[in-house]
Amino acid sequence: MIELWFGVPVFFKDFDNKVFHQELDNAMSNVEIKSAEKIWNDTVQTSFTYSANNKLLEDCPELSGTIVNTMSEYLTYFNLENANGMRITGSWINVSERGQFQHYHDHAGDDISGVFYHQSTGSTDEGEIVFKSPAPGIAQSQLMSGQSNKAYYPPKKGRLMLFPSVLEHAVLPNKTDLKRISVSFNASIIWK
Fold it and tell me: Who is most buried in 35, 113, 116, 173, counting CB within 10 A?
């Protein structure tokens, strides 16, 4: 018998809904987008700050409702009997122009994190999101040498991705002259 242990479910779903993008365009006009805070050492432009209220999705009821419903769908994978839905705890815009990127980081302290791509052509050159294995020793194992310790996903307009907040991830540099715009968010489980 073989059992697969330590698997990390990463969920994605594509949406073709113009209302989501209209809501985001309107919400973006109400936030300040600037260079990431120095402690990140990233070059991405963002509306996230440690001192401000990161509630961008509150101005996007159609998109945020869909995200919450989709997170509940994702939550069924984990078989948590006492879970009673999800609550978005923070959300912000990230803008990547040519050469801009984000280092590996996680969103520990929340349960589920995610990204929704607002503007992207789907090209890997626009900067893929990269997830790092939670078992870093795989890279040094001859037995496991055929297993990748990273997973790459290209940005795609309308794609929603969900993953455990503790999963380390980065965004590769945008190699194009097109702006990649995404919404990042964190959520916590509502317990019964």
Answer: 116
